[in-house]
Design brief:
Layout (H helix, E strand, L loop, with lengths): L1 H9 L2 H7 L27 E14 L5 E18 L4 E6 L19 H7 L5 H13 L5 E6 L2 H8 L3 E5 L3 E4 L6 E5 L2 E5 L1 H9 L10 H19 L4 H14 E3 L3 H12 L6 E5 L2 E4 L9 E3 L1 H11 L20 E6 L4 E2 H6 L9 H16 L9
Parallel strand pairs: 1-4, 3-10
Antiparallel strand pairs: 1-2, 2-3, 4-9, 5-8, 6-7, 10-14, 11-12, 11-13
Helix pairs in contact: 1-8, 1-9, 3-4, 5-6, 5-8
Length: 379
């Protein structure tokens, strides 16, 4: 989203030429049309289906010190459909611990597919993950965007912090000593550096009984804040963001296409942006000692039919979701469908609410709605 905002804000002409030095394309390969389901010809130019990946390269050595790994794990996996006909964007979070069996290596998790491909010397590693998602969930994928999770600190620093609504107190204690090791209180908070990382990565804070599933829901408040702030970005902000894009973002979207997509993205109102989570069950037993979650096939088919099915598509059934089986326990965690306008409304009237920022974003949104686009997005 930030890549698109950057390119859309920079515009054409000389600034476009200047921005090309920062736009890194295809270094992780490209989506292989022979390995994935592509958007049907009749929808080309009318919608764009993206695989968005946040890659965590941070590892901890034997002495507890952090260091960079060469491949990283896909810490965030999101399927995004931008529909240019009805001016909407639907996003589906895929839990990183989703069970995929041998495809995910020893741990059997979906976040292991990409690093396995990188380690094997695959020249087109991102297509391995795209292929798995496309074929097993019957979802078309046209392009991808990856972002190094380490970039979030720099992105937020460019904006001078991000005003995020924290839905409840996040408090974490050391499992061995019981000492408090992290705290972020409920309410509007300007997140930077360590506080941002704590908010986005917390899985074991008090009240987060579902671990990564609760983490995914908390991250939506950050997405909402980032969308709102990005829509008020100045040219100065954009210029400062471009080196971050160069260092940390990779995509197989051409710059020309990205600029057209950006114009469309900036016109989408928050009431037309939906975020959901792929329904999953807890595993009745670990896989090779690793805790995993298992795709709820019937529930996922229902979710895709409601939000990601085109008019002429045949509705999916549980049999069409071909992920591997594994014993499950308990009920299925639902899709937790939310609209950005609803997320934006939480915390309204509480101390610290970014009223001026929200007003600027709303004004920009309204202006974008009335402008006719001079750029046609390519699928």
């Amino acid at each position: 989203m930030l890549v698109l905002v950057c390119l859309g804000g920079i515009g054409y002409g000389a600034l476009k030429v200047w921005s090309m030095q920062y736009f890194k394309t295809g270094e992780m390969g490209s989506i292989d049309a022979d390995e994935v389901i592509m958007t049907a010809p009749e929808y080309k130019g009318k919608q764009l289906n993206l695989l968005v990946l946040g890659i965590d390269y941070t590892t901890v050595d034997g002495e507890g010190a952090e260091e960079r790994s060469k491949n990283g794990n896909t810490d965030m996996i999101m399927y995004v459909r931008m529909n240019f006909e009805n001016n909407s964007m639907y996003m589906m979070q895929i839990p990183r611990d989703t069970f995929v069996g041998e495809a995910g290596g020893t741990a059997g998790k979906i976040n292991g597919i990409l690093p396995l491909a990188v380690n094997s010397g695959d020249d087109n590693p991102v297509s391995e993950l795209a292929s798995y998602i496309s074929k097993n969930y019957n979802l078309p994928i046209d392009k991808y965007v990856t972002i190094d999770m380490d970039s979030l600190r720099e992105i937020v620093d460019v904006f001078g912090g991000i005003n995020v609504y924290v839905p409840y107190d996040l408090v974490t204690y050391d499992e061995n000593t019981g000492a408090e090791i992290g705290r972020l209180e409920q309410g509007w908070r300007v997140l930077t550096g360590d506080s941002l990382e704590y908010f986005l990565r917390s899985r074991k804070a008090v009240g987060m009984a579902r671990s990564d599933l609760d983490r995914l829901e908390n991250q939506r408040y950050f997405y909402s804040a980032l969308f709102r702030r990005a829509k008020t970005a100045s040219v100065r902000d954009i210029v400062k963001l471009m080196p971050v894009v160069s260092n940390y973002v990779n995509t197989d979207i051409s710059m020309e296409d990205a600029m057209g997509i950006a114009v469309k993205f900036l016109s989408i109102p928050s009431s037309n942006i939906m975020v959901c989570r792929m329904p999953v069950y807890g595993a009745a037993q670990n896989y090779n000692g690793q805790s995993v979650v298992v795709t709820g096939k019937a529930e996922t088919a229902e979710l895709i039919n409601e939000y990601f099915l085109n008019e002429n598509d045949t509705p999916l059934t549980a049999a069409d979701i071909t992920t591997p089986d594994w014993p499950t326990s308990g009920g299925c965690a639902d899709a937790a469908v939310q609209w950005m306008s609803g997320i934006d409304a939480e915390g309204a009237g509480e101390a610290g609410e970014p009223v001026e920022e929200k007003a600027d974003a709303a004004e920009n949104e309204a202006a974008q709605q009335t402008e006719s686009s001079q750029s046609v997005p390519a699928a």
